[in-house]
């Protein structure tokens, strides 16, 4: 029974995280099927992450108010229902709403599942579940783009959601059977509703401004100005309310701890650059370089393979080597990989592009754990869980914001480079009035402009990783207050993408 429950929880954890990576190569096909611009299709991934971010700080309330079994079953059933809507609808707004529900429900299952493992079993039996949890934590996100690309080209993108439904329902039913009668006494803790509302308004307004900015001309639009003001004001009210709240939604006082502040800032911007460039790699190569979803997935496969090795080594060495050193090494490795990608001055072949992914994969497994260890330094028990919820919100918010920010930079730089390349090759009028030859010239210019913009984005990301690495020099040496190594690793994996 112990093994079965752990397998079911591990499967559910795998399913939720798999959807975060497998959906990326599907975005161009989703846009075509729903009849929208790819920029609108990006919203379905960014808002998925945003909903997941809001789920982490509210999961504890669901857990205490309704219990493990009811909360877990309801979340997986909601995930299955949202997947059914995504699989069937051809309406963009229904699809977007379903992705938001899917993200929130999936986000709820992650901390609740870990709570089940930590509460129900003795340390000896708990190790089985935590081991499966660790495997499920890193495998789906790294392998997701490859398998998602295969599903897209072979079966069609809707099959991701068709496959979600029976698995999510099975996890819900088996969890209900195994957990019935084993609930802890229900408590009725207060939920920080004002804090939740302020946070929801702030994140929704700011993310909407980022998503819509490129489409409606940024600051030339009154809508963008309005959303930015609302989002900033709500964020200020949220901070003021949380700082003085008796039962805060997020423990903002942790920011007074130097290591937590440094780790939180580093985690947010690392997630932003990582997810933004990952989305650009997967979507951009399909739209501008003509790669299929399966080929893009194969391009990222070495990163998935080598990341598992680096994750294993990082967890082993994290207790013996200064986390600041491990974090700096990984960030420098990512910076080197980004500089490498940005160095191509022509269209690179598949073989040339795969080597930077191998380099990045060697450091991916060690990218997030040191930052999380630095942030949680000196925390244990309930404080460590509250810190984990805060870090989760920051990490997922960084992922959600990274997609539209990087996409906007890419579009702007592509337009700029196309303008200057056009000037050097003749006027726009002469290009488009010269039949086939000029059409090919136009395609070449647009393709080359996109490549130059692609290089610039990775050049910026490389410097971003370098700045985060230098920030770690200001952190204090990490103190592991949690005596159980496996519990500490599970909490760290809870924050990893």
UniProtKB/TrEMBL annotation:
Principal location: membrane
InterPro entries linked to this entry: EmrB-like, MFS, MFS_dom, MFS_trans_sf
Alphabetical list of Gene3D superfamilies matching this protein: MFS general substrate transporter like domains
MF terms (GO), sorted A to Z: transmembrane transporter activity
Keywords in alphabetical order: Cell membrane, Membrane, Transmembrane, Transmembrane helix, Transport
Species this protein is from: Acidithiobacillus ferridurans
Residue stretches making up the Major facilitator superfamily (MFS) profile domain: 5-487
Compartment(s): Cell membrane
Any Pfam family matching the protein: MFS_1
Transmembrane segments: 7-26, 46-64, 71-90, 96-118, 130-151, 157-181, 193-211, 223-241, 261-285, 291-311, 323-342, 354-377, 389-410, 457-475
Record's protein name: DHA2 family efflux MFS transporter permease subunit
Family: Belongs to the major facilitator superfamily. EmrB family.
Gene Ontology CC annotations of this record: plasma membrane
